[in-house]
Amino acid sequence: MTCRHIVAAAAGCETAFTVDASRVTFGRGSLDEVGDRARALGMRRVALFTDARLRVLPWFDEVSRSLDAAGLDVAVFDAVAIEPTDASFEAAALFARDAKADGYVSLGGGSVIDTCKAANLLASHPAPLRTYVNAPLGEARPVPGPLAPHIACPTTSGTGSEVTGIAIFDWLAHHAKTGIASPRLRPSEAVVDPRTTSTLPASVVAASGMDVLCHALESYTARPYLQRAAPNAATARPMSQGRNPWSDLGCREAMTLANTYLRRAVHDARDAEAREQIMWAATLAGIAFGNAGVHVPHAMAYAVAGRVRDFSPDGYPETPIVPHGMAVSVGAPAVFRAFGTFCADRHLEAAGLLGADIRGANADDAGDLLAARVIELARSIGIPNGLAGVGYAATDIADLVAGTMPQQRLLANAPCEVDAACLHELFERALTYW
Ligand SMILES: [Zn+2]
User: Fold this and answer.
1) Dist. CA 203 → ligand 1 center (Å)
2) Comparison of pLDDT for 21 and 72, the residue scoring more
3) Where residue 132 sits, what CATH number does that domain have?
């Protein structure tokens, strides 16, 4: 591989890490608590964000009833786009400003929660969206103050958006996925009710479950915080601060849970125990990556999802889409296989947590062992076979590399230095796995 070992930060390295822990309420029936919690946060007029599919499911009624019972006034926004864009973020912000809401509740997957974060930001601190968007595409200006309170209620066991300060969208003019990252965007509370996953199709549980696993694996193998450049000011320390002892805790548990329960959760919607445990793994992995940051598989995934042509999996809207979890999964084995040499102990340990026999294994085996376990799990739950499985060929690689290079926030969190040549090799090795 052409990836190189990490070059030490010229201005001196980090010596501390910061733990941003969200308030999380987890358990069956917890959606009933949303009204009381919203009132306790001082909300009187609530902007309730969801999407058209969820609006007709019982979970939406439960949250609405809970808000009504707490005496709160509610304005509903259900026009969230499945893969949000700058235009759909702006439309949501317009709604939020017109609704004159003093608080937000989001009920849905990552798209709903991210849209709610963006609407809250743009209504609380009006400015053109690009002001807050990550560099190099956006201006990456800091969010100037606190946002209105936001209770996030996830209904997919994947993105972890309910506990992170990140909102991802397609910037149409740039043909690229990018986002906003600020601790201010982190929802005030997460209410995680695993009953909501009982209505998810198997393909959605599979894709979002692989996203969970990759959040854990990437955070666990990310650049150590001690090898990242120290911030100019304490408050400028990024959320993607590199792996640290706090993020390690959630990652290890999430890997163990994914290995034990993900197959069951995908193959049997009535297996409430398995679906609940994957929801818990999603929460843990979300907390972990919200404090450490993911790296190259996610950077590659934004190009893979953003350049989709005609792939359209079961269980999703009938438009071309590579769901985020699938986009992450097709690049991940190639990355872990190649990066095993840069932090062998971590790759080996992760392989063991995913069920590999690592007795007698040495550092040279670490990447292969972990990649093999990820491939085996992905294959057993119907994830497409590499880039070719989602409609790409070798002739697309240069374009995919170009789409990945702007993801510097993620590339800089890898356990090695990553340039265009390195990405080219990774995409080549991700074409097919079996
Ligand atoms: Zn993800």
Assistant:
1) 16
2) 72
3) 3.40.50.1970
Dist. CA 158 → ligand 1 center (Å): 7
Q: How far is the CA of 35 from the centre of ligand 1 (A)?
A: 29
- Check whether residue 162 and residue 278 sit in a common domain: no
> Which range has the top average pLDDT, 200-204, 360-364, 372-376?
372-376
Using the mean position of ligand 1's atoms as its centre, give its distance from the Cα of residue 326 in Å: 10
Q: Which of 292, 271, 106, 102 is nearest to 191 (CA)?
A: 106
Number of domains in the chain: 2
Looking at the fold, whether 155 and 262 belong to one and the same domain comes out as no
The pLDDT tens digits of the residues spanning 399-412 come to 999 999 988 889 99
Ligand 1 centroid – CA 218 distance (Å):
10
CA 305 to ligand 1 center in whole angstroms:
12
State if pTM tops 0.70.
yes
Same domain, 399 and 255: yes
Asked if pLDDT for residue 298 goes beyond 90, the answer is yes
Distance 255 CA to ligand 1 centre (A): 15
- Contact assessment for residue 379 and residue 296, using Cβ atoms and an 8 Å cutoff: no
Mean pLDDT of 282-291: 94
Q: How far is CA 399 from CA 103, 254, 280, 333, 392, in A?
A: 41, 33, 37, 20, 11
User: Is the peptide bond prior to 187 cis by the omega test (within 30 degrees of 0)?
Assistant: no
Helix (H) or strand (E) holding 74: strand 73-77
Q: For residue 293, how far is its CA from the centre of ligand 1 (angstroms)?
A: 10
Q: What is the pLDDT of residues 307-354, one digit of tens each?
A: 888 898 988 878 888 999 999 999 999 999 999 999 999 999 999 999
